[in-house]
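Record minuted for completeness.

…
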Amino acid sequence: MKCHSHEHGRAELPELTDKLRRKSRKITGPRQAILQILRQHPHPMSNKEIFAELKGDCDLATVYRSLHLLESMHMVKRFDLGDGIARFELLAEGDDGHHHHLVCSRCAAVVEIDDCFTRELEERIAAKSGFKAITHRLEFFGICPQCQ
């Protein structure tokens, strides 16, 4: 496991805005600000956390719409960490965002888990159940060392 960090492979803001341009999307102030906030934070963030960081530069509905657009463009990935709150994380170019998290049930600290289940396990589950195109999403929960 490693502490969740985007330093490795983190795109610069001009690269991110170029990606928006390539997909014929406007580089609005809120979109640029949201990308910058997600670049700077080492953990998935909720709409409201992003909105708070914007300090009134746009309304909450704009944050929701912008994140929906960025998600549809595969620039951010949505995570559900078990509390019903969608959180978003910036994706590096070519990253499908598939990884797992260990989440503290008390303070919501997030640690990224490097290990993942193998394709063979998914195929075995598919063979037993008759399902096709199996994928998985898995998050672990516990109490972090600071909260113990």
